[in-house]
Design brief:
Elements (H helix, E strand, L loop, with lengths): L22 H9 L9 H25 L10 H10 L9 H17 L2
């Protein structure tokens, strides 16, 4: 949970990267709230990890319930339908869904080999 000696908070020390989302982007999103004055590094790491796990959960649920299973793909409509049809994801509407899609796209880009 600590930063490596070079100060790069987007990479964990060691050979295995514990998170895929860029911590700096999550920090930027958190700081955009007028209620946030400072962000503890542990809270930032945990928020980033929780966001990543949530993105994975929604993606897997959308894939399993979506139309792209035959073609091994996931579309925007699969994600939107899952958000509308599954009670757990009902809060992802309007602006919340657009913001989430941005995080989802960042996650996809960061996890590509």
């Amino acid at each position: 949970m600590s930063q490596n000696s070079s100060g790069k908070d987007d990479q964990a020390s060691g050979s295995k990267k514990p998170i895929s989302l860029p911590i700096s982007r999550v920090r930027l999103i958190m700081k955009s709230s007028p209620d946030v004055s400072s962000i503890n590094q542990d809270a930032l790491f945990l928020t980033t990890k929780a966001t990543e796990l949530f993105v994975q959960h929604l993606a897997l649920s959308s894939f399993n319930n979506g139309s792209g299973k035959e073609t091994n793909s996931l579309s925007y409509s699969d994600l939107a339908n899952t958000a509308q049809e599954t009670e757990t994801f009902h809060f992802l509407t309007g602006k919340n869904f657009k913001g989430f899609m941005l995080l989802f796209q960042i996650y996809i880009i960061e996890t590509q080999p």
